[in-house]
Design brief:
By secondary structure, the chain is an all-beta fold. 0% of the residues lie in helices and 51% in strands. It folds into two domains: 25-110, Sandwich (Immunoglobulin-like), CATH 2.60.40; 123-194, Immunoglobulin-like. It has strands spanning 25-28, 32-35, 40-48, 53-58, 63-68, 72-78, 85-93, 96-97, 99-100, 105-110, 123-125, 132-136, 143-149, 154-160, 164-168, 175-183, 186-194.
Length: 195
């Protein structure tokens, strides 16, 4: 039996099972995205409530709509020219319109130049990752790997001389990180997404 807590609302006993749905919430898991010309943006998002969410992401000129099924999912879209700020505008599931919580604003920074790779044949996988990232150099040597947050905070540093190293990212929050590989004074930087 379900009894209403509001005395002005009717309640009754019923032998039929009732389905209870939970209204959704949505928040972005990063506030900054870095865009290379011609590449899609991938922005992690966290959703609560019952699955199958519809999300609206707005900018000053238009709206983008996404259908999502996972509690931690990714909004993937083409960067629109001259748009640098997006706002998570709404979230809806089978229970109705939900609530957008902070952070809800995304700032897009266009990367206009990238260091030319002076270190060849480096593989970084899987990307996105959940537990470990393998950095495969393919040759022994004196190598260094540093993992940074997007704000530039050094999160970890590893030195290795083998042909590869596995970097544990299981304790990191979901988000985007920068992985910097150093060898003989040369540097190469990779963008890593943690799911």
């Amino acid at each position: 039996m379900v009894v209403a807590s509001d005395p002005n609302t009717a309640s009754a006993a019923s032998g039929v099972p009732m389905t209870v749905a939970i209204k959704p919430t949505a928040r972005l898991l990063t506030q900054t995205a870095y865009a290379l010309p011609g590449q899609k943006l991938s922005v992690p998002i966290e959703l609560t409530g019952d699955p199958n969410w519809q999300v609206e992401l707005k900018n000053e000129f238009s709206s983008l709509y996404f259908s999502l099924t996972l509690p931690i999912d990714t909004l993937t879209f083409d960067r629109q020219e001259n748009i640098s700020v997006y706002k998570l505008a709404s979230v809806v599931n089978g229970c109705g319109v939900g609530r957008v919580i902070e952070p809800s604003q995304l700032r897009v920074e266009l990367v206009t130049s990238v260091e030319s790779p002076v270190i060849s044949a480096i593989e970084v996988f899987p990307n996105p990752a959940t537990e470990k990232i393998r950095i495969n150099v393919g040759r022994p040597g004196i190598h260094q790997v540093r993992l940074y947050s997007l704000t530039g905070t050094l999160l970890s540093e590893s030195n290795f001389s083998d042909t590869y190293v596995d970097l544990d990212v299981s304790d990191l929050p979901v988000g985007t990180y920068l992985l910097r590989f150093l060898e003989k004074g040369n540097t190469q930087t990779f963008r890593i997404i943690k799911h």
